[in-house]
Structures are given as structure tokens and as C-alpha cells.
Amino acid sequence: MVQIEIINGPNLNLLGTREPAVYGDQTFEDFLVGLRARYTGVEIGYNQSNVEGEIVNMIQAAGQSESCTGIVLNAAAYSHTSIAIADAIKSISKPVVLVHISNIYSREVERHTDLLAGSAKGMISGLGLGGYELALRALLM
Ligand code: DQA
Q1: 46 catalytic, yes or no?
Q2: How many angstroms is it from 21 CA to the middle of ligand 1?
Q3: CATH number of domain containing 9
Q4: Which of 100, 105, 114, 127, when mutated, tests ligand 1's pocket best, judged by the most ligand atoms within 8 Å of its CB?
């Protein structure tokens, strides 16, 4: 079975209550129930961490896993700061599709640079939680 790992970074555990005008009012767990129901032929793993090094570990583990096909990654604020996570993406051969729930280019200037984008297969920004589904579909193509 195709296996996709979703990795979420800091503060995304608070989706549903965190700045709903920006990120919506659905929890990620609720969204995941629907996503898994729509893609029964795909094993969708999910992990979240607020800690940069743990995200590096998750990317390495998915990269080394024989069964993992690809990674959907929303590194949240670390997208704008983390050379370590960019290096982790470059260190593995599995495709990584980045997601931002909000449109980072229509927000504060410090969010306009995504240090991970050059190392990833592609990036989806501004399409809400639906961006995770589009990223998944990109990995299945
Ligand atoms: C985010 C955008 C980031 O700038 C922010 O720090 C986040 C979430 C998004 O999904 O829109 O935490 O990655």
C-alpha cells in the first residue's frame, strides 16, 4: 500500500482554536479523519512536533523507511528559519511536498521566505487544509 507521512510543525497542534481567521476552525485530527476516509488505499501517517530537532528526526525516519512513498510537510514557523530542516529534506531521496495553510506571501514580510522550498518537490500555500489533500495527490501522481 502507498504510504504518505504528514509532518506538522510548531503550533499546528492548536489548529481549530489558533487564529481561526487565518487557519480555520477545524482541528487537524478532524480533517485527518475525512482525508483517510477519502483515500482508503493510502496509509496516511501523521506526526506533529513543536521541536525543530524532532522534525529533523521525523524526516530522517520517513526517508529511511522502506514503505514510505513521500512526505507532506508543514514546518510552520521553522519554514522561515530552519537550515537544519532544509538539510534534512536534501538528505533523503523521498519527495517532500510543502504545505502552508495560509498564503505566506500575503502576510508579514518575515513569512515571505520559505527556506525549505528549494529543497522540496513543490509547495502549496494559501489553500487552507485542502492544501494537504492537494499535496497528497501530488505525491500519488
Ligand atoms: C504556516 C505559516 C507560517 O508562517 C506560520 O508560522 C505557521 C503556519 C501555515 O500553515 O500557513 O505556523 O506554515
Answers
A1: no
A2: 13
A3: 3.40.50.9100
A4: 100
Q: How far apart are CA 141 and CA 139, in angstroms?
A: 6
List the domain range (segments joined by +) for residue 134. 2-140
Q: Which residues contact 26 (CB under 8 A, 6 or more apart)?
A: 15, 16, 129
Task: Locate all alpha helices (DSSP H) within 1-141, ordered by sequence.
Answer: 20-23, 28-38, 52-64, 83-91, 130-140
pLDDT digits (tens, 9 = 90+) for 44-92: 999 999 999 999 999 999 999 999 999 999 999 999 999 999 999 999 9
> Does residue 111 line the site of ligand 1, with CB under 6 A?
yes
pLDDT band at 124 (very low <50, low <70, confident <90, very high): very high
Q: How many domains does the chain have?
A: 1
Q: Is 112 assigned a catalytic role? A: no
1 confidence band (pLDDT: 50, 70, 90): confident
* Residue to substitute in 14, 23, 81 for testing ligand 1 pocket (most ligand atoms within 8 angstroms of CB): 23
Mean pLDDT of the chain: 97
